[in-house]
Specification:
With 156 residues, the chain is α/β, with parallel strands linked by helices. Helices cover 30% and strands 15% of the residues. The chain has three helices and five strands. The protein has a five-stranded mixed β-sheet with strand order 3-2-1-4-5, with helices on one face.
Length: 156
């Protein structure tokens, strides 16, 4: 009796059904995923000019302008609303909210907070101030350029 010849090669499975299943799962997960809203989204109106060369002179009307300066000798931040200094962000935000309500009551629809950090102020306190504005429903925040002393830069 003759022995049947046994093939020593391993059988090759058909990969087509497995690839089809993988693609179907991939398409299913791509269609069913819901993206998270960016938490750190900053709603602000940045200046459209390219620096201090194009900044118009300040208006005669009093604006809700917040200045933030950093004293490098004392390693301390200073928060100012118009010309009044505040010890912390919470007190500052309460006054800013009151000032915005007064401006809106006087008929100004687009009242905004103008945030002016000095050049040497670290970014973390600025972001904390923006977060505090957002938590207190102050959505319109504009940035303005300040010089090294913390005063608004003027056109020369």
């Amino acid at each position: 009796m003759a022995k049947a010849k046994i093939d020593d090669k391993m059988p090759q499975p058909d990969m087509t059904p497995m690839i089809d299943c993988i693609f179907q799962l991939l398409i299913f997960f791509m269609c069913s995923i819901k993206f998270k809203v960016i938490e750190g989204k900053l709603l602000s109106w940045l200046p459209k000019d390219k620096g201090s060369q194009n900044i118009p002179p300040p208006k005669l009307t009093e604006e809700v302008a917040v200045r933030v300066t950093f004293d490098e000798k004392e390693k301390k931040l200073h928060y100012y609303l118009i010309n009044r200094e505040f010890p912390n962000v919470d007190d500052l935000i309460k006054e800013v909210k009151g000032a915005l309500e007064l401006k809106k009551a006087s008929g100004e629809k687009d009242a905004a907070v103008k945030l002016g950090p000095a050049r040497n102020v670290p970014m973390q306190p600025i972001i904390a101030l923006l977060d505090a504005c957002k938590l207190n429903n102050i959505d319109k925040v504009e940035f303005q350029l300040l010089d090294e002393s913390g005063l608004k830069a003027q056109k020369k």
